[in-house]
Design brief:
Elements (H helix, E strand, L loop, with lengths): L1 H10 L3 E6 L4 E4 L1 H7 L3 H4 L4 H5 L6 H9 L4 E9 L5 E10 L9 E7 L5 H20 L2 E7 L4 E6 L9 H4 L4 H4 L2 H17 L3 E9 L2 E13 L2 E8 L1 H46 L6 H26 L8 E4 H7 L1 H7 L4 E6 L6 E4 L1 H17 L5 E10 L2 E8 L6 H5 L17 H11 L3 E7 L3 E9 L9 H4 L11 E5 L3 H13 L3 E5 L2 H10 L4 E7 L7 H11 L5 E5 L16 E5 L4 H29 L1
Parallel strand pairs: 12-14, 18-19, 18-20, 20-21, 21-22
Antiparallel strand pairs: 1-2, 1-5, 3-4, 4-5, 6-7, 6-10, 8-9, 9-10, 11-13, 14-15, 15-17, 16-17
Helix pairs in contact: 10-11, 10-18, 11-14, 14-16, 19-20
Length: 621
């Protein structure tokens, strides 16, 4: 029998190559000599893959699979001749497997014979088609034996291997991947082999930008073979986590908005009482000084509430001319507490103060977000610098730090929602919010950063003439507080707030009517329609809102002036459109001197519109 086998080995046209466990060539028949050009004495003892496999050849994988007992049957493979030419040949590979006492070896049958062409070409075509189909999926496919060792693999179009093939082929996943991830995946493979059913698992791996999430499904093929499909679900998981963060932020925002609404009403009462009492005292006395301190403290508390509303994105948008230098100085105390004691906060403010047309609360939110971002970049301390500059047509605000900096890849994604390098601590919304606000204001934001040298954010906003303001408060700020004797209707569901407003107006000579709801306000208006010259209404009331009340009143009397008060605005704005003529918006808690100026200006403007309307009616007669 041995002589017959030796004769077949020598006479067959098929190339027969025997290799050991290290892929070293042990035997090389004349058929292999005719196909490749090397005689046995030249090639024995060499690594068969190094000798025959061109770069990227799967030959080593096939031999490894055969050594583990798998059968590689007539697969097309590109192999190299002695001349250097590369040709596609058919490879069949069989090994000794894991049989006891068997010498680990594999036999390679390489056959260009015409008798195999029809079957081989069809098989090769189907193999190429299958490889193309598998390659189109963004998955990693791998095949295992009954012992859970990886026999072969195919990486899809979007797969980046974390472990080189030579480290996992022929090895159990628990050994090659290691850790909890390897144990979870190996457990799924072993369960599939033991119970002959499909299994699934998920695992995570550390990545440079965080953690990668993967989903694996193991499918049984035969009694001792299974195929695994691994898909990268990192993007999906990050989207889900981002949605959870947004939902949590929205809930926190609603809570913050609700707390701020109630607190603003309390501040309105406190501020109104203190301001009224202050007017009864002469200047210069100790009691007056104490009340002045209380007034200043109340204003600071109102500023904190605005920050809370801005965090919850429920701050009413009230754009006006804003001095950027003054805004930075006003918030300096809060900014100092925001950064750690190890961070030095420096200001470099332009002598020619830049002005912009914006909602101060939005600008404060931008400033706080950028400073918080700089603080997080300097856990060991550093310097934070806020600089302003006035350029032709442009107001510039610069926030720079000496922190860790960002590499180009992080820099590229810095303004993307949910992108964060802070792990579980970050929401990924801070810089995205800044970018959105700056874009909304018609400006642009630039960022420069180097690893180890810090980061600089530069905001460029359209500049605003400081003399131009859309609010009568600003224009009247330098004149004494005016009074009057007109009848004013106050609509406010909070009794304490309503009484404070009524007291302030009474002190200036106005006659005041009070209502606590939409219905009672309409009833009071209808009974005193001829006398009422102005309505002050809370924007958010139980039942029907202040907007609805305004619509009812203006439908009956278009010239009637209205002042709307808001502790916050539902949806984050004071309305979906521009306010009607004669409607003025004021945020709670109001500065009462400013509120009185608004009331006087609104009454005067309403009187002019009323006279013009009556004159037009007389002209028609």
């Amino acid at each position: 029998m041995a002589a017959i086998l030796q004769q077949l080995f020598a006479q067959t046209d098929t190339g027969v190559v025997v290799v050991d466990r290290t892929h070293c060539i042990l035997a090389w028949n004349p058929g292999a000599e005719r196909i490749f050009g090397w005689v046995a004495s030249e090639i024995r003892g060499n690594d068969v893959v190094d000798q025959l496999g061109p770069p990227g050849s799967p030959l080593r994988r096939y031999i490894g699979a055969a050594l583990l007992g798998d059968v590689v049957q007539a697969v097309p493979v590109m192999l190299r001749h002695k001349s250097g030419a590369v040709e596609e040949l058919l490879l069949t590979c069989r090994g000794s497997g894991t049989q006891p006492n068997a010498r680990p070896s594999a036999v390679l049958f390489i056959d260009p014979s015409p008798r195999h062409q029809t079957i081989a070409s069809t098989l090769a075509q189907r193999t190429r088609e299958l490889q193309r189909i598998i390659g189109a999926f963004p998955d990693l496919f791998f095949w295992t034996d009954g012992e859970g060792r990886v026999l072969d693999y195919h990486a899809g179009s979007e797969v980046e291997l974390r472990i080189p093939p030579e480290k996992f082929l022929g090895v159990r996943v628990s050994e090659s991947l290691g850790g909890e991830a390897g144990n979870r995946l190996q457990s799924a493979i072993d369960t599939c082999n033991r119970e002959h059913r499909a299994t699934a698992t998920e695992y995570t791996l550390p990545l440079p930008g965080g953690r990668g999430y993967y989903e694996a499904r193991i499918i049984p093929l035969t009694a001792d073979r299974a195929v695994g499909v691994v898909r990268d679900i990192t993007s999906q998981r990050r989207l889900e986590e981002g949605l959870q963060r947004v939902t949590k932020m929205e809930a926190i925002g609603r809570l913050a908005g609700g707390v701020a609404h109630d607190f603003n009403n309390l501040l309105t009462v406190v501020y109104g009482c203190v301001a009224s009492l202050r007017k009864e005292l002469p200047e210069g006395g100790p009691a007056a000084a104490i009340l002045d301190e209380q007034v200043n403290a109340t204003r600071k508390a109102a500023l904190l509430v605005r920050q809370l509303l801005a965090f919850g994105q429920r701050q009413p948008t009230l754009p006006r001319a804003v001095d950027v230098n003054a805004l930075v100085i006003t918030n300096l105390g809060l900014l100092t507490r925001l950064v750690s004691t190890d961070v030095k906060l420096s200001l470099d403010l332009s002598e020619d103060a830049p002005w912009v047309f914006a909602d101060p609360a939005q600008l404060e939110q931008v400033l706080f977000n950028l400073c918080a971002n700089a603080r997080d970049a300097m856990p060991g301390g550093g310097e934070l610098t806020i600089r302003t500059e006035q350029m032709p047509g442009t107001a510039v605000l610069v926030v720079s730090d000496t922190g860790a900096g960002m590499d180009p890849e992080v820099l590229e994604h810095s303004f993307e929602p949910f992108f964060s390098t802070k792990g579980e601590q970050g929401t990924g919304l801070g810089l995205a919010t800044v970018h959105g606000i700056v874009s909304q204001l018609g400006g642009r934001i630039e960022v420069e950063s180097q690893v180890g040298k810090g980061t600089t954010f530069t905001l460029r906003l359209p500049s605003q003439d400081p003399e131009v303001s859309d609010k009568p408060v600003g224009m009247a700020a330098r004149i004494p507080v005016p009074g009057g004797d007109e009848t004013v209707l106050i609509v406010e569901d909070e009794a304490a707030v309503r009484k404070v407003l009524a007291r302030v107006l009474h002190q200036q000579g106005y006659e005041v009517l009070e209502s606590e709801s939409f219905d009672s306000a309409l009833e009071a208006y209808r009974s005193r329609r001829a006398d009422i010259r102005l309505v002050i209404s809370d924007l958010a009331m139980p039942g029907r809102s202040g907007h609805e009340l305004v619509a009812e009143l203006l439908a009956d009397q278009p010239s009637l002036p209205v002042v709307l008060l808001s502790a916050y605005a539902e949806g984050g704005t004071l309305g979906t459109s521009e306010p009607a003529p004669g409607v003025v918006m004021v945020q709670k808690p109001p500065v009462f001197d400013d509120l009185l100026r608004v009331v006087r200006a609104a009454l005067d403007e309403g009187g002019k519109r009323r006279e013009e309307g009556e004159g037009a009616k007389r002209g028609k007669r």
